[in-house]
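Q: A reviewer asked whether we had any structural model of the full assembly, not just the individual parts. We don't, so I'm hoping you can provide one. Inputs are below.
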Amino acid sequence: MKWMGFPYLEKAVFHLSRKVTSLVPESCLLILLGLVLGGIVLAVAKKAEYQLEPGTFFLFLLPPIVLDSGYFMPSRLFFDNLGAILTYAVVGTLWNAFTTGAALWGLQQAGLVAPRVQAGLLDFLLFGSLISAVDPVAVLAVFEEVHVNETLFIIVFGESLLNDAVTVVLYKVCNSFVEMGSANVQATDYLKGVASLFVVSLGGAAVGLVFAFLLALTTRFTKRVRIIEPLLVFLLAYAAYLTAEMASLSAILAVTMCGLGCKKYVEANISHKSRTAVKYTMKTLASCAETIIFMLLGISAVDSSKWAWDSGLVLGTLFFILFFRALGVVLQTWVLNQFRLVPLDKIDQVVMSYGGLRGAVAFALVILLDRTKIPAKDYFVATTIVVVFFTVIVQGLTIKPLVKWLKVKRSEHHKPTLNQELHEHTFDHILAAVEDVVGHHGYHYWRDRWEQFDKKYLSQLLMRRSAYRIRDQIWDVYYRLNIRDAISFVDQGGHVLSSTGLTLPSMPSRNSVAETSVTNLLRESGSGACLDLQVIDTVRSGRDREDAVMHHLLCGGLYKPRYRYKASCSRHFISEDAQERQDKEVFQQNMKRRLESFKSTKHNICFTKSKPRPRKAGRKKKDGMANTEATNGKPPRDLGFQDTAAVILTVESEEEEDSDSSETEKEDDEGIIFVARATSEVLQEGKVSGSLEVCPSPRIIPPSPTCAEKELPWKSGQGDLAVYVSSETTKIVPVDMQTGWNQSISSLESLASPPCTQAPAMTRLPPRSLVTEEPQAPLNLPSDLRPSFAFPPSLAKAGRSHSESSADIPQQQELQPLMGHEDHTHLSPGTANSHWCIQFNRGGRL
Amino acid sequence: MERAPGSGRVPRVLAESPSACAPAVSQASLLRLYHRFRALDWNEKGYLSRVDLQQIGALAVNPLGDRIIDSFFPDGSLHLDFPGFVRVLARFRPVDDEDNGNRDPKEPEPLNSRMNKLRFAFQLYDLDRDGKISRQEMLQVLRLMVGVQVTEEQLESIADRTVQEADEDGDGAVSFLEFAKSLEKMNIEQKMSIRILK
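A: Here is a predicted structure for the entire assembly that you could use as a starting point for your response.
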């Protein structure tokens, strides 16, 4: 089987040449390739080898494809159209089988089929039953490239999956009838046949659901053995397949139901990595199996010893399957449209009729026939091969132009939005309620019932407590949107946050921190004129931002030990607790940050992408500010302060001005405030990313870190932020209020390390601003700082109560010593600070 | 339905004001609704009160049940008569399209138009009837729908984001137009329809 690698190579080539694959479906290419390969093998080995063995096919090749399609089936869509799907699958398949079989028999009676094809009515019915079933593999392969609208796709595809039960039953019943001989078949046998249809289909579905239940239940308890999660999914699904197969039930139905049923709970239970593993493994396996199937189909067709040609039979079969498929679809659709809210129009019907592709299932079934019982087997094999090739190649080739020509509604992929998701749920509830009011127990009623049952019992039973949230679809969309934002943001090259973009901090990103800090240092020691693009970007945004960045950097350092620990442990699956907690925390932080950046991008469109941070900060400020203003009366005063200073730092505050000019200005002009702002920013950032690594921007200004670090561990919502801002404002204003503040704070001071923020802050400020500030600074120094430092602890407390994870506390403890250190170094001027900073980082990295 | 003793009255009611009652709702549906109306009106007072609707078991567990019941009683009225009953439900009549034989494009803005369907949904959010879904209102709906597993804090951030996503003029609230715009890709006519009301 060494040559098995060949198809994949070929597949890669196909994918590379978009032009070919845009015209020709891959399945066609693979079949043709198989033909060529088969020819070569035949020429070399003088005998046909590598046939598509029914055993291999049903045991190994089919299950992954079916599992993949069942597992990734859009369940909502599937159940929305369940009625139509079931009709086509059951009635349609029965119709196709009987009409095709009977018509072929009629053809033979009419003498159009050569007499050497020895077959009676039962033989033709048997042949009709195996040739009539639409094949999931072929349909999937072709329709995935055609992109018709979802409803149409799910109907054709759902039919192809669910008709397996009917096919299996028909095939077995007819086969046994043929073996018994038509003379021996009694009325009860027909009844048994009908009964077995229900047993096989419902039994298969039941087996699948039982295994889905088991699977969901099992994954609920794999918290400590994450590594087996993907394995479990595959094992149990395969077990469902084998069990159903053993019990002579519909195995395809079993796997489909298993995948369909378990997905929701399994996805919620297993870890993110396992989800990814399951997804890609499943897709890979299915894709491999599909490739092999089509290749083998091509190769098998070359073996002329197996088949015998009869033009009448072949042409008759081709005509009848097309004709009766179309007729069946039209008749069924007419009936269905009486009950459908959205009727299937004529174009849909054309595509549905034309999309009835036959494939490997039919081939494998026909190979399985017993030549001794069915003398016409070779003719059937040949006919099946032709039919499969015709449908896959001719119809597969033409369906795309047809769809284009008929202007079939294509599926439109629009990104999910929170609004859509939320409103869709609203609509569901509304419709369920309206059905209640109308007193009609229709689809919405039962769906609503099911959802409540699911919520009350099933989810409770099958999902981890911690997994509930993932289960919620609104939350899920929110989560995915945030992830997407993060990725696109990083892709945009937002260098400020570059490596914080995603949830899991990693070693490389830490290195990048070091690098940036080095560049910072260089810049610092160099002249004021910076030609470095990065620097220029950041310079404009002002010192405060640099401050923030620095804090962020420091935060990164402080966080390190924790993450490092995590990184080393994540290789084993013992430490899952810590990891999970951290994941959660990081995730929440990211959520928050994404939200902020989303806000900011939305509102300050004019900014370049590289400056998300100031925007963010400004934005947040605004929110916080608004809140504080509502709560305490201090802010107005601050505004008075700011007015004078606003002029000074225009360049820096420029960005923020659109949204919230007053605050930023205020902060900028006052050194102290400015520090506070930075801290809040940093805090935010630290909170958010958890990953801390990045601080591209440049300045090294240690002072505020103290603040930031203290608060860093504390992360919470905007309410907290508001408080935070208020602390700043009090700092600013104050002389009169200070006494009160000091009193309230004095107790807290002991907790906080001695603040020395001010001096550094001043040194950092541009000369002009310094001048203006000077009078104020001395006044504010002693008292202001304390509040700023005292606050954090209190905030942290509040924050802790808010935050879910207990991780914060240790974290904060970790921070304390470092903060103390920092505080001492604050006072030294810029260069010294930067040195210190870098050392610090390195230390952190070690 | 079993308690429709005055089935003789049905035609009368329908004949009184067929078009006022339910423009474009078919006679069969109307009859069905009338039976339902009488069944809900268990003490035969001729109108429905909130309590009558609240007694529908499934509505009690519907997270939006109360709001939906409220929307049957516009402007704080306490009585719901049959025309009003049908008028609300008529919004959920499927939109007839070309393939359907029984369409009548007479009304300029039929009750089951896309906008009316959307308006119905919108007013479920807009509790204070100011024509805007504020962040607070969004949060309330989310709280009803998302359930207890998500913390308040997270709900707030979802609400924030939801509002911002739809909010185009930056006023921090979602107006009806913005609401409709956020759903413009969705097939409302299809989603907000119930077949039996045809």
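A: Points you may want to mention in the reply: Chain B has two domains: 21-91, 111-192. Residues 1-13, 15-22, 98-103 of chain B have pLDDT under 50 and may be disordered.
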